[in-house]
Write a structure and sequence with these properties.
Length: 863
């Protein structure tokens, strides 16, 4: 292991520990180190690390480096007596920090006046593992200057050969959610590339609490319950042990796209079906709180207002009647018909289910593909198959052995106390049922047939059940158990079904046929609502349904304003299925193909051939309609585990969008070649994300020309840009001189213009693209494009907002790319507008002083 260099966390005078007027530090009772008498007022991170603890009084902090060194920094002496006065911690326990990051700000004047001393010890608290080989003392030091160098002790090195061909490595886990399903699957996949046996041990102070597992088993890895900041030891034994140890250790330390400090994932431009906040289906308020619900003569144990709360899995509203589903236990017998017979039967059932999952995964997209792939990895887990084979050898039937193996591991996941891992146990029970049905020779698809207008109520649902739902009959569902990050919740959102989870046991008291109103966005199920409430909800829902029906009936018409101005109505896509829905809804082309669906949820970048096949499939589905392909837009809130992008203090302002492509030219070249290979030539247009300068556009143009020359492509390919930064909007006239078209990503443009992170709940509610500042940037973009005769479109969230559409058209936008399901309504709205009215409306909107005022104005606008 390389030496660890610690830099000075403070500006001041560096001294040996003996200079500290406190025997606890001076006599190294807490560990070895040095001290700094500060002249500044901020403590900084001396290295990249995880925050192990921040003292309640804010005067001390402990860090752990990736190599396992634990560093205590104690600001002043007896400063705990200040009770927190004068200290302002900048980080919390569990946070990941980088060298130089501010950790604690303090009032130096207050400390000088009230503390015994301000000298600050910097201590290595586990000196049994690390030796300080160099110290800088008796001189002035600045923040970030090298101060101490640590080396692992020979007898405690993270990588050391012991007992012949066994090597060990001890690391600190930097994964924000610990080792859950996806990291466990990737670790297992990496381990299977080596011959050596590899184990991970979760370290604990007490020997009896230490547990280990074979890393080839994703389930066993999850069951260890490894969390952020936990210390683990990896041990490999075999001929390629050193290589295996390096690969597994580096994979974990690399973060796999989940390092602590990375922002949560939120939808990007065109990221999935949106639900407009105005005039949405079922926008209604219950007339009154009704009496306790009554169904079938039975009074339900419900709140007095007849409303059951739950956790939103997928927003939306549904009106219907209750349909019940209870997961029936499959009966199995324990006694087998002989080990050979039973093992053959189990292996055949496992192969059948694996084939089915692989086949479905090949044609699935997005979350559905990821879930099916995760199930395939779990099915291949040696912990499960070995346990089942052992039970069969002892005389158990294949079905009984498989159930025993699955339940043991599911129980282990529940026992971790981690909600995410407990939800993965549901996936294992799903696999249990599928294999048991295969053993019984039954159809693997458990389809639920229920009357039209059913709101499905279940004690629990498995992913395979949801994938088999008849969405023509089921309009929503509620589940007693489950959680918002379960695979069922993810699938519900993907399918656009309103859904609640974790409603609780009261759900079981509702009888079949009970009238229900499911307001999933509000987290409520209205049971047997009174007549006035039902009427209010139904009126709003029916009106919206009729508007959508009429819009869909006319969706094939060319999109024009009432006075004949052409406005292209495109759709945002992420798959061939999306393209099919877009065509069905009258979309005139694709204004944004999110190519991330090909690059995420996998361990390596897709090949040129793989990309071409997917792009071609979408182009074929569009049947000649324009296809605007956005170049890979990852980084920031969408990390790819195989791309070495270091953790960033502010990923939204770091390596993302086209900056990633320019930093990895081989990947950019592969994507450009794949797009150029799509036939017919000219159907595809290319769009560059996150442009901030003409130099970036020119670099992409150069790469495009090189890719075209390399494959002999001679036809012109339109190269446009996304306007997502204020810099691009302000210089749109310069960019339009060389770009073939402009498309505005209003989600990012809004957050950058307003300096509000849309991933931050404290400000996200104020993030509105109809803010006058954003509208003025859109106007500037349209004007800049018009100077060079280039068209401007919108592919961000505003294109799906009916209140925004007239304003956008009035500002000069001539292409709107929305969610596929909303295309008919957008086209119907455009047909009621005139250009003069839109221009006057847009001019008035830009004089408003807030987004709220713009929305109020928009609600009063009548075409």
């Amino acid at each position: 292991m390389k030496p660890i260099i610690l830099t000075s966390p403070l500006q001041g005078w560096a001294s040996p520990l003996e200079a500290v007027p406190d025997p606890v530090f001076a006599e190294r009772m807490m560990g070895d180190g040095i001290a700094v008498d500060p002249t500044g007022d901020c403590l900084h991170a001396p290295c990249d690390a995880v925050v192990l603890s921040v003292h309640a009084s804010g005067h001390a902090i402990t860090l752990r480096t990736p190599e396992g060194a634990e560093i205590l920094m104690h600001i002043g002496l007896d400063t705990v007596a200040l009770g927190g006065r004068g200290f302002s911690p900048c980080v919390v326990e569990g946070a990941t920090v980088q060298r130089g990051d501010p950790l604690i700000r303090f009032d130096l004047d207050l400390l000088v006046c009230e503390a015994r001393a301000v000298i600050t010890p910097v201590i290595v608290t586990n000196p049994e593992r690390f030796t300080i080989v160099r110290r800088e003392t008796d001189r002035l030091v600045g923040v970030g200057e090298a101060m101490m160098t640590l080396e692992p002790r020979v007898d405690a090195a993270d990588v050391a050969v012991v007992e012949g061909d066994t090597v060990r490595r001890t690391i600190v886990v930097p994964l924000v959610h610990g080792i859950h399903a996806r990291p466990a699957a990737r670790i297992g996949e990496t381990a299977r590339k080596f011959v050596s046996e590899i184990k991970i041990t979760k370290d604990a102070p007490v020997e009896a609490d230490r547990r280990d597992c074979n890393v080839r088993s994703p389930v066993a890895l999850m069951a260890l319950g490894v969390k952020l900041g936990d210390q683990i030891t990896i041990a490999a034994t075999g001929p390629d042990a050193a290589d295996a140890l390096a690969a597994i250790g580096d994979l974990i330390l690399g973060g796999m796209g989940e390092k602590a400090g990375s922002p949560p994932v939120f939808p990007r431009e065109g990221g999935g079906p949106g639900i407009p906040t105005d005039n949405a289906a079922g926008s209604w308020a219950p007339a009154s709180a009704g009496e306790p619900g009554v169904a079938g003569g039975k009074v339900l144990s419900l709140p007095a207002d007849g409303r059951l709360p739950g956790v939103t899995a997928s927003p939306g509203i549904a009106i219907g009647q209750a349909g019940l589903f209870r997961l029936a236990e499959i009966t199995v017998t324990r006694e087998g018909a002989g080990a050979t017979t039973e093992r053959t039967a189990l292996d055949a059932a496992l192969a059948k289910v694996t084939t089915r999952l692989t086949t479905k995964s090949a044609i699935a997209t997005g979350p559905e593909r990821a879930i099916l792939s995760a199930h395939t990895a779990l099915l291949d887990d040696p912990t499960l198959t070995d346990a089942a084979h052992a039970a069969i050898a002892n005389g158990d039937s294949a079905a009984y052995a498989w159930r025993t193996a699955i339940r043991a591991q599911a129980d282990a996941l529940h026992a971790t106390g981690d909600a995410r891992l407990a939800e993965r146990a549901d996936d294992m029970l799903d696999l249990e049922r599928q294999v048991l049905r295969a053993l019984a020779g039954e159809d693997l698809d458990e389809r639920l047939s229920l009357p039209p207008g059913t709101i499905l109520l279940a004690d629990d649902l498995l992913p395979s059940h949801l994938l088999g739902l008849d969405t023509a009959s089921i309009v929503g569902f509620c589940v007693e158990r489950g959680g918002p990050t379960s695979h069922v919740a993810i699938l519900a959102a993907t399918m656009g079904l309103p859904a609640l989870v974790a409603v609780g046991p009261a759900l079981a008291e509702i009888t079949t046929g009970t009238p229900l109103i499911l307001d999933a966005g509000a987290g409520l199920l209205h049971v047997a609502p009174d007549a006035e409430t039902q009427a209010t909800a139904k009126t709003a829902f029916d009106a919206q349904t009729e508007r959508r029906r009429a819009a869909l009936a006319n969706a094939a018409r060319e999109c024009r304003t009432q006075d004949g101005v052409r406005i292209e109505a495109f759709a945002n896509l992420g798959s061939a299925d999306d393209a099919e829905a877009a065509v069905r809804n009258g979309a005139e082309g694709c204004g944004l193909l999110r190519t991330e669906f090909l690059f995420l949820e996998r361990n390596s970048a897709p090949s040129v051939e793989e990309q071409t096949a997917d792009y071609q499939r979408i182009a074929d589905t569009l049947a000649g309609r324009p296809l605007i392909v956005r170049l890979l837009d990852i980084g920031g809130d969408k990390p790819a585990p195989y791309l070495p992008i270091a953790a960033e203090e502010n990923p939204a302002l770091g390596l993302r969008g086209i900056r990633v492509g320019l930093a990895h030219p081989e990947m950019l070249d592969a994507q450009l070649r794949a797009i150029l290979a799509v036939q017919p030539a000219g159907q595809c247009r290319i769009m560059v994300p996150m442009i901030a300068s003409l130099a970036e556009l020119r670099a992409v143009r150069k790469a495009l020309d090189a890719a075209a020359a390399a494959i002999g492509h001679t036809e012109h390919v339109a190269l446009g840009i996304m306007i997502e930064t204020p810099a691009a909007a302000i210089t749109a006239d310069l960019l339009a001189s060389e770009a073939d078209f402009l498309s505005i990503g209003t989600n990012d443009l809004t957050q950058y213009a307003l300096a509000m992170d849309r991933g931050n709940p404290a400000v996200a509610s104020d993030l509105d693209g109809l803010h006058p500042a954003v509208l003025r940037l859109i106007a500037r973009t349209c004007e800049g494009g018009a100077v060079h005769g280039k068209w401007t479109g919108v592919c961000g969230g505003l294109a799906s907002d009916p209140l925004a559409v007239p304003i956008l058209i009035g500002l000069g936008v001539t292409e709107l790319s929305s969610a596929p399901a909303l295309v008919p309504e957008i086209k119907a709205l455009v047909a009621t507008l005139t250009i003069d009215a839109c221009r006057a409306h847009a001019a008035a909107a830009m004089t408003c002083i807030s987004a709220a005022d713009v929305r109020a104005l928009a609600r009063e606008f009548r075409p």
